[in-house]
Automatic annotation (TrEMBL):
Pfam families: Rib_5-P_isom_A
Gene that encodes it: rpiA
Name this protein carries in UniProt: Ribose-5-phosphate isomerase A
GO molecular function: ribose-5-phosphate isomerase activity
Function: Catalyzes the reversible conversion of ribose-5-phosphate to ribulose 5-phosphate.
Similarity annotation: Belongs to the ribose 5-phosphate isomerase family.
Length: 231
């Protein structure tokens, strides 16, 4: 079946884990979009939930669909975050950030008791890294940060290149948080845990797309149906 149908299947299965009264993290991306669509239908039917959106795009969608929203300041502890991923390895470590929302996504996932990843089977990999690793960086001293990040990536065996993300119109992409994103071509990341720590140690790096130990389980959709994949 077509990829959108698979994404919708995974989103529908994730909805079965949502209970009345839950405080939810609302993910970003095309798969999470299906989840918010389906959640809104349940809210219209009387389901009582509140959600913290992980991006301005998801906020706008939720507002348009009348999904009640809150902020992480008002609701610092969430019950469940549902979000997509660009890559999922067997330990449920993720690469995220293809949609540029990784900073709020990681903050919201970290504030949640559980995080469910929803994806079609194309996201499952044996080793992370074929998908370019997004690294969110502060504008101040961008070139110095870029050099420092390049050194860390070299040491981790990522050959590069390290590209500043641009929008379709050629202008530099700026995140909801006002930062820029460097996308690192690694091919394969032998030790995601070590790379995650080394990137955080670089001043100027705000966040990166390696989500280590945050996903509780994944819901993977394939033509045979959506199945739960544990850690
Ligand atoms: O940008 C993100 O982090 C998205 O969640 C991404 O990881 C998955 O987006 P997709 O569901 O559109 O593939």
């Amino acid at each position: 079946s077509d990829p959108e149908a698979l994404k919708r299947d995974a989103a529908a299965k994730a909805l079965s884990f949502v209970e009345d009264g839950m405080r939810l993290g609302l993910g970003t991306g095309s798969t999470a979009k299906h989840f918010v669509d389906l959640l809104a239908e349940r809210v219209a039917g009387g389901l009582r939930v509140i959600g913290v959106p992980t991006s301005e795009v998801t906020r706008a969608q939720a507002e348009r669909l009348n999904v009640p929203l809150t902020t992480l300041d008002e609701t610092p502890e969430l019950d469940l975050t549902i979000d997509g991923a660009d890559e999922i390895d067997p330990a449920l470590n993720l690469i995220k950030g293809g949609g540029g929302a990784l900073l709020r996504e990681k903050i919201v996932a970290s504030a949640s008791a559980r995080m469910i990843v929803i994806a079609d089977a194309s996201k499952q990999v044996a080793t992370l890294g074929r998908y370019p690793l997004p690294i969110e960086v502060n504008l101040f001293g961008l070139e110095a940060t870029r050099r420092a990040v390049a050194k860390v990536l070299d040491a981790a065996g990522c050959p590069g290149p390290l590209n500043l993300r641009k929008k379709a119109d050629g202008h530099v992409f700026v995140t909801d948080g006002g930062h820029m994103i460097l996308d690192a071509a690694c091919e394969r990341i032998a030790d995601p845990v070590a790379l995650a720590a080394r990137l955080h140690a670089v001043p100027g790096v705000v966040e990166h797309g390696l989500f280590i130990g945050l996903a509780s389980f994944a819901i993977i959709a394939s033509p045979g149906g959506a199945e739960v994949v544990g850690r």
